[in-house]
Batch of 3 targets.
Target 1
Amino acid sequence: MKDSDENINACGGSLTPNMTDDNVDVVATGEAGEVDAKEEMDAKETTFTMKPEDRSSGENGDANNPAKRVGSASEAFEHILFQVGSYGKWQWKIFFIVSFCGIFTAFHNLSAAFIAATPEHWCHVAALDTLDGSHDLRNGSVPWKVGWEGKGEFSSCTYYNRNWTGLVAGGLTGDDLPFLPTSDVPIQGCHDWVYDHAIYETTAVEEWDLVCLNKYRMSFIQSTYMGGVLAGALVLSELADKFGRRTISLVSAVGFLVASVSVAFVTPYPLFLIFRFFVAAFGSGIFLSNFVIIMETVGSEGRTVMGMMYQCFFAVGFMLLPAIAYFVNDWRSLQLWISIPSVLMLLYYWFLPESPRWLMLQGRYEDALKILRQVAKTNGGSLPPKEELDVLCDSVEEEIILLSTPNLRRRCLIIFFAWFVVSMVYYGLTFSGGNINASPYLLVFLSGLVEIPSYILSCWTLKKRISRGNHTVFHLEKLKDLTCAHEYTVAVSNRFDVLGALEDPEELWDTFKRETLQTAKECIGERPRSRHGFVSTETLEKIEESRAVKLPGNRDQHRALSRRTRTLLGRDKKRYVRSLAEDVEGPPTAYRALKKLRSKTQSRASTIRAADGRLVLDMDGQMARWAEYFGQLFTVDPPIEQLHTSGLRAKDADPPIDKTAPSQRSQRGCSKVEGWKGSWCL
């Protein structure tokens, strides 16, 4: 067995690696001879230590120069991960190790619903403290007003400015308070309050009197917290790219524990806000770093499931928080109860590995392959032979920059905006529970409970790839007209008036959906939509117009509209082709897309190979292979002797190509595609 510190050098002979969709065979020719079984076993146990810059260009010049290679770290790692097991026991073990952090971050993300809850309160009149406590001292001392729901209630911020000390000295009792005259009595704002402890024993709002004139200060509690989430996502994510996901996760876990415990003991209100800011920042670092570790260690076939199930742990914390708050009514004690369990995240030091993908990108191949051997051992896979590891690791250069192309920028901006809107609604509903006449504990618990089936349903939907054509599209641009927007607002308000009389939740939900859709249809109107994404709204409207004139029998107008429709369809298809070309981020993506279009079975190969089985990593070679393969889609198979060279023991690199000649219609359609040569279709 070779020593674990052995450096892997380029082989003297020529290597001809061949990969089909299911296996990898490597046969060496020339001076190196064939690789026997013992050498292959040793190759799997060898540690790779050579860096790309240490290799010479070799006889092939730029073809073997790492600076000229196009293969990215992502593609090289995907190929190795597929060999060792990209979705198995090891991935699930890491998933459960890192996912429980979502429970602790959910505790603090939503804790303001209880530690900063605003209990019922009213002005404190010190002179009335000597009266019998069995009476409601608000009668006669606090004005009566109409609440935001149209219901009467006692004022929270004003009281009747009487000579209360003289009245009490003159024999005023609690029974006399309701009969005191209130007309022409001046009303004054107060600076001291009495809080109702029926639901909460103490809250941060009560401790710092964040009500009435000081109510604006209460909004800082959650706004500074969400600012910490933003700061942590921006700063710690960059640090995770530089120092490693595991390192930032461990540092964030320590900071998260210290800051969250400190919140329970601070006295000044500004310090309370500062420590909550750091709780949010470090919590964001933990949650995002662990999520990236999961996504970087699992194959594409498991990312949808694990990505959605990762959010379920956040929902579990969402449900556990009101259960804890129900039994712990003091806000400082509650803060300790939800902070101390975070000490479990310190166990990451012993159980959480670094992302092997990140290690590979940093050139730390020994550390990456050490983890990948553990993956292979747990999942029952094996590392590729050392010669192929040499080629794959040599292809590592840089990761794709997220905003490097117009399409990626556009999609990212859309996702950012959607996330912003969803977060506004999500946290708005959570923290507005006090405005609903129901138990706040039950409301928060149910809000977390409904998340779990929604994540499962979303996971199933993404796996099934439900068509976007099922969505209803309305003319939302009409809402730019203030008159239309006002009419829509009034119509929605009138529709919702009928919901108050409904008590059955199922009937209430069905009525809500029906009334909302009907109102939108009447006030805004639907837009015609096709299940084919490339058909524009203008074309759809022409199709509807053509159908409308066909019914009365206006043949001339119908033919004119039909010709216009065909012209628009052709234009839409050309735009669609251009957008597809822009979406292709590299030759590997295009090559795999073409193979997937031709075969019903999904290929799991992650690299481009030539027809004779050689691994193609340079840009020019990949582009040539892409063009060659695309041309073969419209031709017959080449002679078998062109696919096999002497001494090569391998199967065909690609599945058989359909020998049936394309129809004339297919040839004409291909020749019309802008920028493509019609001769490829012949």
Target 2
Amino acid sequence: LVYIVLLLRMLLCDPGWEGEYCEQCVRMPGCLHGTCHQPWQCICHNGWAGKFCDKDVHICEHELPCQNGAECVYDGDGEYSCLCPEGFHGKDCERKTGPCEKAGFPCRNGGQCQDENGFARNFTCRCLAGFVGALCENDVDDCLMRPCANGATCHDGINRFSCQCQVGFEGRFCTINIDDCASRPCKNGAKCYDRIHDFDCLCPDGFTGKTCEVSTPEPTWVTFYLPANRENNGAVKSTTSEHLWVTQPDEGGLLKISVKEVVTQRDAGLSESQLVTVLVFGILTAALVLVTILLILRNRQRGRRRSNWCQSPSQANVLYLAAADPCVFSPFTKPFKLVCVF
């Protein structure tokens, strides 16, 4: 409740004043060690200085900021400086004159020289992105991995690259094929097919051209009749009708007439050469069958004669046999016999 009352009183005071009776001035925001006589002032107390009274005027005695045996000198308004001994540098003489300073800070292309505040034996360079080397002297070739596609040209930069795309492609890596059908170039209801830096139009009937912008004339059909039967190389054709296609000419042009014949061909008989071939083939077949029958009959007749000869009694003790005869002479039978093997 008391807090609410105080808040209400503050709200009732003029801007820059506060207190139970609005008798206290409001200090400048951020004022640490100061006071005010008028609103938004910052009047420093003894021993403090600065715009916000935040700096100790006795810093050299109280904080001893200078290092490595350096002498602290107060410069007024809360500022100081350090008189560094030989071999040291920095605001507080905290850095030793080491390899970086002796080499004249050799790191290139924005690289930072590091030598552990001068206490390291050698220096090292901490390079910015896109540079390598002992002194950060080499620019990394960002095009080495060939990031650009579709024949694009890669241009190396500092820790970056850019692609110069071929005609028909776009995007950071030139991987996007530009849609050449986006502008709807095909006319008269034609269907568009995107290509690389090109397009094709599938025209409907009655139109032609790159974008189907040319109208083709409609053909006029005239029907007339020809004689029913005509001979052509021995085959009989039955012509039902002929169609005459007349294309209307342009002014001053020529008239183009195309004739289309609708023909039905009936089954024709064998030609003379085909008949001769069939006849010869039949004669040869019959002759082959006849020869085969004669050979079979001859072999059967020879077999019967040999069988009768082997069964007749022998008139002599010795018989002379042909090598090809199937009968075999046997001397172990009395009287001597011929044993025939069939």
Target 3
Amino acid sequence: MIQNTTKKHQKKMKNSNESPNTSTSTASDDFLDLIAVIDDQNSKPLSSLIIDGLKKIKPTSELWILYLFIIIPSIVITCFLIISNSTSLIFTQFVDCSIGVNIAFFAAGLTGFALMQAIVTPKTIMKLSSIKNGPYNKFQNYLIHILGVLFYYIFTLVLSLFIKITVSIISANPDILNFISLNIKNISSFLIIFIYLLIIMHGIIEMFSLIFNLFSIYSLDSYYTCKEYSKTTSENQKKTIKTIEKDLSNS
């Protein structure tokens, strides 16, 4: 991902060095397009942005091997929980643990967003914004992914609290579910625990994706900074050489 983006921008920068007028007009057009896209994004309701963000973090077929390694242990853990004599107690403790983890991940996501604001320069924003990637540009996709991850952790926190309250009520009043057969109880418990484990595991995977995106942005920003420094240094050297040659000719 980083290499492909870098190669594209290397070609763009070579073309810009060959034709300054073209690069100026292209930069101006990109800036106007960026303003138009931002205005369109700001006009969207928050619910639409949240939905777009959650779409960014949905499981993909590219990671099916990783999800396979998650599903199999989740099934084994769920089976052990179901046959245990203290299923509700163990599951409640696991929910408590996952609540703490989700709070930590949510804080890490906010920190990552603040870190991205600190490390990204205007030039990097313009470069990433010039790369179209679906309905949004590359930079907006990064922002929407962070938004989706943060709301996913909020969703898991609310879900965890709801499950904890429900399990606590059922544990305190076991006669509430006497009208349901034992087989249905076991199947329902298995599905609830299994799906909850998958949701928590998926949140952990998305934290790795968030870290990778921050690394990508930092790498691109470092690349553009080095290119700009190299260009500035080269121009200064040329000016110095011209000044020396001029002084020598005058002398």
